[in-house]
Amino acid sequence: MIEAVPYWCRIALLLLLLSLIATIDRLRNGPKATRVKEYSFVVVSGVVGALFGLLNDLITSSISPEYFSFGKGLNPGDGLTVRAGILGMKAGLSAGAIAGAICLYASTRGCLYPPLAYRRLLGVLWRPVVLATAAALMMALFFRRLDPFGFSRQLEGILEPRRIQRFLTVWWIHCGLYLGLLVSVVWIIVDIARLRKRQQYVGAAGGVDRRA
Questions:
Q1: What pLDDT was estimated at residue 3?
Q2: Are 54 and 92 in contact (CB under 8 A)?
Q3: What are phi and psi of 169, to 5 degrees?
Q4: What was the pLDDT predicted at 92?
Q5: Residue ranges per structural domain of the chain
Q6: Measuring CA to CA, which residue among 80, 166, 181, 71 is closest to residue 132?
Q7: Residue 159, φ and ψ in degrees, nearest 5
Q8: Predicted pLDDT of residue 90
Q9: What is the C-alpha separation between 69 and 63, in angstroms, rounded?
Q10: In this predicted structure, what is the pLDDT of residue 111?
Q11: Are 46 and 96 in contact, with CB atoms under 8 Å apart?
Q12: DSSP for the chain?
């Protein structure tokens, strides 16, 4: 199937649109403009996710190419690892940008307390990477022999037993990645709410909370 608009063209158009909105916000509000910092954080979050997704799928496609050919619909053969890496980059970009947007909303909107500093937000980007990696490794280690969706039965006679096991291992790795991302986002949102509340109390008392 031919894409009407290539993926990277859509990304470029989105970045162009965000830049236009941020420029208008800057012209209208001057130093009080916030769109540049907000959109920059989402873009940085997406880039972090893209790099993580690229690295992960480059590694996991070498463990089980069949996971990507059977499970993800990629054509087997030469170049599968590269195509898997690109697929992971796209998925990571989307997941990172969405997670960043959620955290940004928690930091700037829907609350009576003052927004959190952007440097503080940038300082928590390590959490999704670390938690996703840890969850992926743990689930691959402890649950790799579990097969709740019956993949083994579906692949029996198609793949050797050891390759089926590798397929399951990579599947659990990906499950762990999304679980770790979810837990980290919840952790960040809770932490943001706590920090914003503390900033309010410190500001009311006339002090400065350098930890926020």
A1: 56
A2: yes
A3: -60, -45
A4: 95
A5: 34-204
A6: 181
A7: -120, 155
A8: 94
A9: 13
A10: 56
A11: yes
A12: ---SS-HHHHHHHHHHHHHHHHHHHHHHHGGG--HHHHHHHHHHHHHHHHHHHHHHHHHHHHH-HHIIIIIS-PPPSTTHHHHHHHHHHHHHHHHHHHHHHHHHHHHHSS-SSPPPPHHHHHTTTHHHHHHHHHHHHHHHHHSTT--TT-HHHHHBTTB-HHHHHHHHHHHHHHHHHHHHHHHHHHHHHHHHHHHHHHHHHHHHTT---TT-
Q: What is the pLDDT of residue 197?
A: 77
Cα end-to-end span (Å), the chain: 49
What would the two tokens of residue 171 be? 């599947």
Strand partners, 156: 159
Mean per-residue pLDDT pooled into runs of 10, the chain (212 residues): 70 88 88 86 94 96 95 90 95 93 83 71 91 96 93 92 95 96 94 78 46 40
Tell me which residue of 91, 101, 103, 94 sits closest to 127, measured CA to CA. 103
What is the CB-side half-sphere exposure of residue 43 using CA atoms within 13 A?
A: 15
